[in-house]
Every structure is written in C-alpha cells, then in structure tokens.
Amino acid sequence: YAPPPPLVAGPGGTAPLPGRSGAHGGSYVAQGTRIDVNDQARQIGTQIAAVDKGFLAFDRLANDMNQLRADYERLRLSHELSREIAAERDTTKLLEKILTSVFKFIRADRGVIFLRNEGGELTPQAMQRRDGTTAPISVSSTILNHVVHERAAVLTHDAAMDFAASKGKSMILNRISSAIVAPLVAPLQHNNEVLGVLWLDSETLAQFQPKDLELVTAIAYQAAMFIEINILGKKIENEIVTREQLRRLLSPNIAERVLSGQLAVKQGGQHVEECTVFNSDIRGFTRMAESKKPEELVVMLNEYFERMVDTIFQFEGTLDKFMGDGIMALWGAPVAHRDDAVRSVECALKMGEVLGEFNRERLQRDEQPLAVGIGIHTGPLVAGYIGSSKALSYTVIGDVANTSARLCSIALAGQIVISETTYAQLGGRFETEELQPAKVKGKDKPIPIYNVIRSRPMAQVPANAFANVEPTNSAQE
C-alpha cells in the first residue's frame, strides 16, 4: 500500500495536490483503486499554480528593480561627472577627473585618455589603474587607429586580435580580454575632429556589455565637449594676450591684420635686410627729474608717451620699447613697407607738432615745456622675440639700432638727425640741411648726417619721389 499524496482541503472535500498525480495525470492510483479528481480540486490546483507563477514574476520584478537601480546609479554618476568637469579649466585635472568618475560605474581594470598633439599623434595624457599602481598600460594600436579613422566606439572581448571594422558603427567582438574604446569627437568648432581617445580595458572575460558601450560613448562625447571648451578657452586667452602684445607694438590696424592672418609675423630671430630705427629722448630730463616729485614725473611721462605712441601708430610704426624718457620705434619690422624711411621721418615731423600742442597745455598749467631730440638710421639688422620663456619682447639688435641711438644723442633739442642711408631713401621729399660728419662709436670714420627741417611743398618734390610710397591706412581713411 502506497500512502496517498498530500491533500488540499476545499469546500467539496479533499483532492490530491496537482502536480503530484500518478502516470494517469488527473488521478492518483493506490492498490488498484482509482480516485477521480473533481472539478473543484482542479480549480484549487489552478489557483495554486497561479500563485506559484506570481512568485516567479515577483522574482523577475525584483531583478528588474535591481537593474533599474544600477542603471539609475550609472546615470546619476554620469550627471555628477558633467557637473564636476564643467567648471574645470585645467586640462590635466579635467582628464584625471573623467577617469576617476568613469571607474565608479564601469568596472575597468585600466583606463587611458589620449589626446592628439600638434603633430596629430595620440599621446597619453591621463592614466589610471584600479589597483592603484602606476605601471605603464599597453594598448592596441590597431584598435586605436580604427577608432580614430572610423570615429566609432568599439567594444571587444579580445583586444589583442586583429579585426575587420564595419564603417561608422560600434563593434562588438566576443573573445577574451574586454575593452571599450571611444573617440573624443569635438562637437563644436573643430568640424567633428577626433581630439583623442578614451580607452578602458579589463582582464575579465566579457566584463563589458553593450549598455556599457553606450554609456562610455556618451561620456566620451561629454568629455570631448569639455576638452574642446578648454582648448577654445585657452586659444581665446592666448589670442587676447597676443592681441594686447601686438597692440602695444603695432598700430591697431596692423595688429588686426596680423591677427586675422593677412600679415605674417614670424616668432624667433630673423634677418631684416632693411629696417629704419627711430630713437628719441627728452632733453634736460635728468635735471627735470631732480626737481619733480616721482608721482608728478610719472604723470608727465605717461601723458607724453601717450601722444608720441599714437603718432607712431598713425604712421604704422612698431613700438620697440621705452627707455626711461626715451622711445625706440621701428619701420620695417615686423611689418615692412616700401617707404618705411619716409614714414619714420614724417612721424618725427608730426611728433614735433604734437609736442608743440602738448607744451602749450603744459604752459597753461604753469609747467615746463619739453624739448626732444630724434635720431634715425636705416640698414640691415636682426629682429625677433628676445628674452626668457617667461618674458619675451619684440626688438632688434645690431649696428643699425646702435647708430640710431648715437644719432639721437647728437641731436639738439628740436632736431631730427638722420643718417646718409636714410637720407638716400627720402627722394627729396623733405627739406634738409647737411651737418658736420659725426664721429660715432663703433665707426672708423665720421659718418655723414642730416637734419630734417620740414616737408617740401608738393610742387618742389621730384616726380619720382612717390614711386615707392604706400598710403597709410590713416591717409586712406
């Protein structure tokens, strides 16, 4: 005799629990006796089966809820990453923050961010290992090149194998050693240029899933955007600094032409075949400085320099430097004109007029008028940015600059002393007087010099004097 199966109590009596029946399915057989299962028992069995299925659904729901929580946490961390890196302006720190954040929700063992250098080569800029070590990280150049060329992210389970890429699509390869590699594509101003690559890998088989690829791709897009913002911000900062430096050196219109690329200014030293160097200083300045308070002296010099520099820029000269009360300016570097010598002399004459107006203002304030001497020389020299890596300035070196300074020291108050080489390029446009040849330091013999008195009336200027003259922008306007 075999014991009967457990029974389920119900309103109509008892019946065996469904699923525990014998070979006849709907009935239980004991010692040849057949016991039929009534309809009510079947209904109860159906209800129990439904409850059993319900428990399975609850299990699936619990798993789904856990997955939703995990996905939400990843999205939260992704949003947190955006907030953290949005305000970071240091590119190195920005890349480190990106890797640190990525490691929170992607179980990678190693991570590297590559950026392209000026030559277009990918160079590692940030690296991280989950174990905290600093050993070098090897990557697959084949995968890197594919990602850059196709501008597409890759998910692979065999980072060492060669693979054939489908154009423009992310790849999923099922082998060993997982890796996710995503391009950092510039979304703003760089025409979708690949700025770099985000590399993540793991030694665990099938560590990354398609959902990880989607997330890393989104993060790479965010990272590229902020990297590009940093690049553009740095470019703007450099342009502002360059613009200010050029505006201190060049007339505003020349500075704008250089910045816009219409004119080239080469950094570093270069030989200039012909450049006109202008020097001026205030006569009797030392005595004046002894009788004035320092703050009064500074105010006076600033007022004087403001007027003189505006005049230099009016004739498209380059301001080289201030030397105490002296001014050094250039025509022919870094921007050259056919009539640079003429421009420098015209500027010197105009300075005399401007100084006269300034002196009238000073006399009205019961202040002493200023007297200035000017020296101008033309010839070959070396021009360029000279100084340390932290402080560069554009200047010229050579005999021409020294001779110009010597001529300035010879000039009396109100004189514009020019060398023979400068005089030869004026084409008779100015009324001059020849002075006694001057003994100049560094020269074996006295050199011929001239004093410029005024511009000649147009009727007295030779017809060929304007053959090499370029109109200044101020004249055109």
TrEMBL record:
<dbReference type="GO" id="GO:0009190">
    <property type="term" value="P:cyclic nucleotide biosynthetic process"/>
</dbReference>
<dbReference type="InterPro" id="IPR003018">
    <property type="entry name" value="GAF"/>
</dbReference>
<protein>
    <recommendedName>
        <fullName>Guanylate cyclase domain-containing protein</fullName>
    </recommendedName>
</protein>
<dbReference type="GO" id="GO:0035556">
    <property type="term" value="P:intracellular signal transduction"/>
</dbReference>
<dbReference type="InterPro" id="IPR029787">
    <property type="entry name" value="Nucleotide_cyclase"/>
</dbReference>
<dbReference type="InterPro" id="IPR001054">
    <property type="entry name" value="A/G_cyclase"/>
</dbReference>
<dbReference type="InterPro" id="IPR029016">
    <property type="entry name" value="GAF-like_dom_sf"/>
</dbReference>
<dbReference type="Pfam" id="PF00211">
    <property type="entry name" value="Guanylate_cyc"/>
</dbReference>
<feature type="region of interest" description="Disordered">
    <location>
        <begin position="1"/>
        <end position="25"/>
    </location>
</feature>
<feature type="domain" description="Guanylate cyclase">
    <location>
        <begin position="276"/>
        <end position="408"/>
    </location>
</feature>
<dbReference type="Pfam" id="PF01590">
    <property type="entry name" value="GAF"/>
</dbReference>
<dbReference type="GO" id="GO:0004016">
    <property type="term" value="F:adenylate cyclase activity"/>
</dbReference>
<dbReference type="InterPro" id="IPR050697">
    <property type="entry name" value="Adenylyl/Guanylyl_Cyclase_3/4"/>
</dbReference>
